[in-house]
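Below is a concrete protein record.
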Amino acid sequence: MEKIRLTSRFARQSSYWSSSKTSSQDERIFKKWATLWRSIILSSLSKTLYPYSQYIRTLDLGDLMQLIRDSEYLEERTNDFFQDELAQFKIDKQMGYLDARAKDMANNIGEAITQQTPLLERLTGEGYNEELSRWIPRLPRLTHLKLWDGAWIEGNGNLVRLHCPSFKRLELWDWRNDGADQGLAAFLDDLRPQSLESFQSFSSSNYGPQSFRKLSSHGESLIQLKLHWLTSDMLPKLSLLKGCINLISLSLSGNRANALTDFEKSHKGAFLETAA
C-alpha cells in the first residue's frame, strides 16, 4: 500500500496539468497505480492466485478516491478500471457529482476489502458513520484511524474498545458540526482507559471542554497531541489538558496569525496554567 500512495502523488500532479492528453510517462504511472488497486480489490473478491488482501497492514481509501476522481478525466481510464468483476462498484455519472460518487465507490470497495483484511492496522478514508460501524468488528489488529470527517467515529468508541484492543492513534481532519465536542468526548470515554497515545486534528473543528477533559483522562498514555486551527473561544479551555503529563510532542496553532500570542496577553492565567 505504501507504493500506491507514492505513485498517487504523481498521478494527482498529472491530472492538474493535462486535460484530454497525458504524457506516456504519466499514463504509465496511472496504470501502475490502478493495477495495484485492482489487484487488491480482486484479491478481496477471491479472484487472484494469491490472497494479497490478507496481508494488508495499511488501507488508504482516500488514495482510492483520488484514483477514481483522476480516472474520470478520461472515460477510457474509468472503463478499464471498472471492467469485469469491478463493474459492480461503478456508479454512473448520472447518479451525482464526481466527489460524492468517488466517495461512495471507494467506500463500497472498502466494504469488500475490509472483509478480507484480518491484519489491517491503519485505516484512512472519508465515509459514513454506519460504514465504520460495520468495519470495526472485522479489524482486530486496528491501531490507527485517520479520517477526513470526525463524525465518522461518532458512537463507535465501544466497538473499538471491544474489537480493537491495540487501538492507540486517532487523526481527524475536521469535525465541524455542533455535536463535535460531545461526540469526540464520548468516543474517547468509551476507549480503554489510558490507551490513546496520539491525537491529531488538522483543521477547523468544534472541540471544547468536554473533549479536552477526556483527552486529559488519557494523560498518562498520550504522548503526541496536535491541535490546529484553534479558535479564540477554544484557547482558554486548553488548561483542561493539564492531565496530559507524558507528552513528548505537542503542537498547537490558532486559526489566525498571532492567535496564541494574543491568548497569552488576554488570558495570562489560563495561558500559564496551560503552559505548566
User: Anything to note?
Assistant: The chain has a mean pLDDT of 85. The CA atoms of residues 6 and 102 lie 20 Å apart.
